[in-house]
Structure prediction request, 366 residues.
Amino acid sequence: MSVVKRIIRDNIEKVKVDELLADEYEQAGYGGITLTKTPLGAQINLFAMRPGRVIGKRGRAIKAATERLEQELGLSNPQITVVEVEFPELNPQIMAARIANALERGVHYRRAVFWSLNRTMEAGALGCEVVIRGPLRSNRARYEKVSEGFVPKSGDPALKYVKKAVVHVKQKKGMFGINVTIVPPESRFPDKVSLDSLPVIEYPEEEVELPAGVEPEPPVAEEALAQIIEPETVPEETDAKDEVKESPAGDVEPQALEPDQEAEPEGSSTVDSVESEVSVEPKVEPEEPGTMDEVKEAPIVEVEPQAPEPDGTVEPEGSAEKDSASELVAPVEPEETTAPAPPEEEKEKEEPEAVESEDSTSAEEG
Prediction:
């Protein structure tokens, strides 16, 4: 027998076995077979969605199928191995059988076709195509095709990876044919190249030649870059009470700030607190100067404590404390409206007043 006739005979035998087992295990989710001829017999791998129904109780169903293969087809010593289908949505035989079953139960053909297409693509298929032929809406036969993804029609990938299945179902209007084509996710195509396996090429840095007499800039340290990038931190405000305690004059403690009082600039709080504790001598109202320029040009001189007068006047308390506080606190600028007169002019004015008072007292005694 020639090689061509032997190939044709083996393929016809395989189709007969496939049709017989598909009719036998239609309710078990039949998914196809692989037939291998060996010297000991024929090895058949049967793919099914529910292997329990293929085997049957105590193996009765599979023994009955083996006897049918020997008697009807003349296979010598057939050995059937049941394999469970892991992903039924990627098997075209199972999906075509589901569409046929839905049509027998009265489901509209478009609804059954789109349901099968969506389930197949959600399972990870690269492409899917469903074609249904027959008297769909009238007595005249027609077909509808629904496809999604990439489905090659010719070439080596179409023969090697693409899976096809055809199922027929009889309806009241006539016979319907369902063709399902699925491209599994493990398919490889010559026009789709992946560059993930290529090594990463590292190029050396370009060296720039500087002209003579020019020195390259030193690299900036990471700490300096961090200081440039990070914003300057604002120092937290400390209480005036803590600042006064840290000052050399430890005997002066200002009053605590009230919560509703606004925060004052540094230095002013210490001056106000010191002035509140130290009693100040009553100011002598000087004569009003002629112009405002004289007030602005008046020098600021520290006031020395005066000796007690013979008439028994006593200086107010806290004069000694004022002297010690005045050394620590800078002089405060006077307001524009009132300004104390220089101490030399006050002394000159006080002397004639004292002489006049003495003359008046001697005149009254005389």
About this structure: Strands lie at 30-38, 41-48, 79-84, 127-134, 142-149, 163-170, 175-183. The chain has twelve helices and seven strands. The chain has a mean pLDDT of 74. The first strand starts at residue 30 and ends at 38.
